[in-house]
Amino acid sequence: MLSVRMSRPLVRSSIRALDGYVPGEQPRAGARVVKLNTNENPYPPSPRVMEAVRAVPPHALQRYPQPMADEFRAAASRILGIPGDAILAGNGSDDILTIATRTFLDPGDALAYPAPTYSLYPVLARLQDARIVTVPWGKGWSLPVEALAASGARAIYLANPNAPTGTKVPASAVEALARAFDGALLVDEAYVDFADEHCLDLALRLPNVVVSRTMSKSYALAGVRFGFAVSRPETIREMAKVKDSYNCDALSIAAAAAAISDQDYARSTWAKIRAQRSRLTSALEALGWSVLPSQANFVLATVPGNRAGAVHSALKAAGVLVRYFDAPGLADKLRITVGTPEDTDALLAALGTIQ
Ligand SMILES: Cc1ncc(COP(=O)(O)O)c(C=O)c1O
User: Fold this and answer.
1) 190 Cα to the center of ligand 1, angstroms
2) Which pLDDT tens digit goes with each residue over 225-274?
3) Domain boundary assignment for the chain
4) Cα–Cα distance, 215 to 99 (Å, whole number)
5) Residues near ligand 1 with C-beta < 6 Å?
6) Which residue, judged by its Cα, is nearest atom 13 of ligand 1?
7) Is CATH 3.40.50.11540 the right assignment for the domain spanning 23-44+264-354?
8) Residue 87, C-beta contacts closer than 8 angstroms, at least 6 positions apart
9) Which CATH architecture has domain 47-261?
């Protein structure tokens, strides 16, 4: 057998040093679990989505897809009331975040974000050999505008509503930060359809704001992988240079266009999820847990007596999956996705046997 003599490691040192992103557990298909751990929508996508997927002709699979996801861009432009060339489609909003990181950060530049937040941000920064500046949230989970603006970073990522807290800062604070900061401000609006306000107009009014959205949560398409960015056309054109040529496939473009076009259906699921969020919050508070006010499709709850890890395991044994982060500031908390009324019933019943 031929051997290869390697004088240096095969893999870049920054990759070897990296702890990759750890996704939430996905049980095998058909497993009977109550799945409240990855903030998916508990309702199926609009029936129009499956119709659109079935209507995709064979030649659309034979050929490469539209590089800029034209069909989705047209639908999103109509629904959101923004120009089509202000939209960039991505293979999930994680793809948008990857594209943004590669567009806005040179190796050695700093990415700043208020912490705790979405744990993918540091992974993306490290992949780009960028530095990370974390800034603690202000009192009451407010936006630390001055500290972020003075961070010396080239880009700021702001999840709003934030994950895993569910808290949201007002658009006026986001605008104040964008005006005080001379780099790119990416506002990650993965959960914004469950909130009372968004920042889409900021992305068109101010030259340094990019908003990212996902079809995974509010449109129930996590399995399809589709997200998008909104910014001024001149920025979108630069980001488009960075993306894979065909980053969205023909089936996902058809599915996402159909989903965003069926606003009545989507909004009916958002209303049900908001109502269930209130019920879940009150029920957990009645158990003596403290729950952060959430504008997302999940809640972050502090389990009394530092039992979050134990409760997480006991719930899992009872067939209820929730998310536990053994991380600074989060180790006494559980993040619980808002499900159907039956999901909440099952969670509360399981907690009743554990407490
Ligand atoms: C804050 C935040 N941004 C982005 C994403 C990624 O969403 P997508 O499924 O579109 O990649 C998530 C997923 O959990 C998230 O929590």
Assistant:
1) 6
2) 999 999 999 999 999 999 999 999 999 999 999 999 999 999 999 999 99
3) 23-44+264-354, 47-261
4) 17
5) 39, 92-94, 118, 159, 163, 188, 190, 214, 216, 222, 227
6) 190
7) no
8) 72, 73, 76, 77, 228, 229, 230, 236
9) 3-Layer(aba) Sandwich (3.40)
